[in-house]
TrEMBL record, chain A:
Region (Disordered): 261-311
Stated family: Belongs to the RPF2 family.
GO BP, sorted A to Z: maturation of LSU-rRNA from tricistronic rRNA transcript (SSU-rRNA, 5.8S rRNA, LSU-rRNA); ribosomal large subunit assembly
This protein's name: Ribosome production factor 2 homolog
This protein's UniProt keywords: Nucleus
Species this chain originates from: Tremella mesenterica
TrEMBL record, chain B:
Compartmental location: Nucleus
Organism: Tremella mesenterica
Family, per entry: Belongs to the RRS1 family.
Protein name in the entry: Ribosome biogenesis regulatory protein
Known function: Involved in ribosomal large subunit assembly.
């Protein structure tokens, strides 16, 4: 943290940029950073590439290796997050003890809020599936299946993480034609050997199946259209490894919601939009007021005789 | 692998549909199927089972989305999404409220508002401007109206006009009392000193403290600060000057008295000055006396202007 100097704005552009980074009443969408650790496997790299493709354009991919160990030292993650004004970090690692490791980290106020470590057990890349892909920046639908996402703390954390990464920003309106794909996350049933809930809580036995399907909607004659799903990829099978839950105090701060009147939101939160309109074409039209032109300063033909006398 | 998995769901026959456990959070475009995954179907054919589950939950989600109110804009049909049900953590804390400016702080302290209360108010029913108070004023609206609604179960002797008038009179009386209290508070001598006076006192206190600690640190070296660097404005070390009595004095009484004092101290019963029984605390007596004098003088010179009077 200390490595980042505090910038005092010297001009209006820098000031505006810094103001954008300050805490906002209505927050912007969270940006995710994809970082590779010192050792990674091909599978983890491919997996990160596809998760990145799904998160784009609000994602930053670090092309170099970084010596990060999220569960041991979070300082470099916090540095990356602050520097890039991002609050989600996806770290890829690989070791003998934890092969094909993926660590999801969430930030609040420049500090680590919570962490979730996933093992990539099975992976099929997006490019391996010959189908039409969703367009860049299209908002996915997201569905979760299993009671574990409602009861088991680690799985609740996973649900919260994936919601936050792909659908965290709540929208006020959505064009119906923009629905293109759905992310489906399913937890496998618990093995029959595990019967008690405490046993299930101590381990994280159920596999997570991460699937993405494209949606094709066609009119059915009623209000609700007919729907066709086609696998788009990637399809990833995760296991949950280590987790770091958020501190209660910090989570409480993070879950605080501002009190805003709906009227204020509609009128742009007190920001006046003066002289800016959107026309029928959807173009932004601004009206500017100019002073009357000073014709005495108009440059006409240059002649020696018309030259201003000095002094 | 070149195979893709496809599933289709037409709206007509809901073969895989009847799962009522799907919860939809339209604000986040999310759906949660909270029923346990069936082990048999799961282990028999995983891809198709996952697809079935997704088809069901997505269908619920889509049907919810398509039933929401829409607006048509230039960029197509827009669905108005409700607020998200699932709470997700914020990225940064809530912005702190802007600190008040000096004027705003002052105005708040003094209760100054920019708006002056108008004497006239607009009456919506009459569609004209009426007086806030006075003859035919807005505050007499209820008591002066020619007909009153009597609520069911009300006392037949109850007079709505009179009670409204009484309520108004009470409001006026309360305001009067508050006004009087304000005036009394304003004219009363301020018990607490002004902020600037307090500040200067704190400052001098702090100065004394600082000097004291500086002197203490000076004595902490072996040479008792003799070779320390001098700082500008440094306090002068003031030791206790020793006083020597002459070896041979004129009166022996003084020496005797001092010796006796030491002996008395050893006894442990040394009497303090002016605190013994029957002795008069002269300082206190003088204080009482002067106060009495002042009160007498004040009553005799009652015609004097109050302005010139000084309080001590």
């Amino acid at each position: 943290m200390s490595m980042l100097r505090t910038v005092k704005p010297k001009n209006a552009r820098v000031k505006r940029a810094l103001e954008k980074r300050e805490p906002q009443l209505i927050e912007n969408e969270k940006t995710a950073i994809f970082v590779r650790g010192q050792n990674t496997s091909q599978r983890v790299r491919d997996c990160m590439k596809d998760l990145y493709a799904l998160k784009r354009p609000l994602a930053i991919n670090f092309s170099h290796k970084n010596d990060v160990h999220p569960f041991d030292d979070t300082s470099s993650l916090e540095f990356f997050a602050r520097k890039n004004d991002a609050s989600l970090l996806i770290t890829g690692l690989h070791s003998k003890k934890r092969p094909h490791d993926l660590v999801l980290t969430r930030m609040f106020d420049g500090r680590v809020l919570d962490m979730l470590e996933l093992g990539v057990e099975g992976f099929r890349a997006m490019s391996d599936v010959p189908s039409v892909k969703s367009s860049l920046g299209a908002r996915p639908l997201i569905v979760f299946h299993s009671d574990l996402f409602d009861t088991h703390p680690s799985y609740q954390l996973l649900k919260s993480f994936f919601l936050d990464i792909y659908n965290g920003h709540s929208l006020s309106e959505l064009p119906l034609t923009s629905i293109e794909h759905v992310i489906s996350i399913t937890a496998s049933p618990l093995p029959s050997s595990i019967t008690t809930t405490s046993e299930a809580a101590s381990q994280n036995p159920a596999l997570i199946h991460f699937r993405v399907y494209t949606i094709k909607l066609s009119s059915s004659g009623t209000k609700i259209p007919e729907m066709q799903l086609t696998e788009m990829g990637p399809s990833i099978d995760f296991t949950i490894r280590r987790t770091k839950e958020a501190e209660d105090e910090m989570m409480k701060m993070a879950l605080k919601r501002p009190k805003i009147d709906k009227k204020d939101v509609e009128s742009g939160l007190g920001k006046k939009r003066k002289n800016i309109e959107t026309d029928e074409m959807g173009d932004k039209v601004g009206r500017i007021h100019l002073d009357k032109q000073d014709l005495s300063k108009l440059q006409s033909r240059k002649m020696k005789g018309l030259k201003k006398s000095r002094g | 692998m070149a195979q893709t998995i496809e599933g289709q769901l037409s709206n007509g026959p809901p073969a895989v549909l009847p799962r009522d456990t799907v919860e939809v959070d339209a604000g986040l475009l999310a759906a949660f199927d909270n029923s346990p995954v069936e082990p048999e179907a799961y282990s028999s054919n995983l891809p198709s089972h996952l697809l079935d589950l997704t088809l069901t939950s997505t269908h619920h989600l889509i049907s919810t989305l398509f039933q929401l109110p829409t607006t048509s804009t230039a960029s197509g049909l827009m669905v108005q999404l409700p607020a998200a049900k699932t709470l997700l953590p914020r990225e940064k804390p809530l912005p702190k409220p802007k600190p008040l400016t000096k004027w705003e702080r002052f105005a708040k302290e003094k209760g100054i508002s920019h708006k002056q209360r108008d004497r006239m108010v607009f009456d919506d029913e009459r569609q004209e401007w009426v007086k806030r108070w006075g003859r035919g004023g807005k505050n007499k609206e209820v008591e002066e109206q020619w007909i009153h609604e009597v609520k069911a179960g009300e006392d037949p002797d109850h007079d709505p006009a009179a009670s409204a008038k009484k309520a108004r009179k009470e409001r006026v009386a309360k305001n009067e009392a508050q006004h009087k209290a304000n005036l009394a508070h304003a004219t009363a001598p301020t018990s607490t000193r002004s902020i600037s006076a307090q500040n200067s006192e704190n400052r001098s206190k702090r100065k004394v403290e600082l000097e004291r600690s500086m002197l203490l640190t000076k004595t902490s070296t072996a040479s008792l600060g003799k070779f320390d660097k001098k700082i500008e404005g440094e306090p002068k070390t003031k030791g206790v000057k020793r006083k020597f009595e002459p070896n041979v004095g004129e009166d022996w009484e003084g020496e005797k008295g001092r010796a006796m004092d030491v002996l008395k101290g050893l006894d442990g019963k040394k009497k303090r000055e002016g605190k013994g029984e029957g002795e008069i605390n002269v300082r206190k007596a003088v204080r009482f006396h002067t106060r009495e004098e002042r009160i007498k003088g004040g009553s005799s010179a009652g015609s004097k202007s109050v302005k010139g009077k000084r309080r001590s």
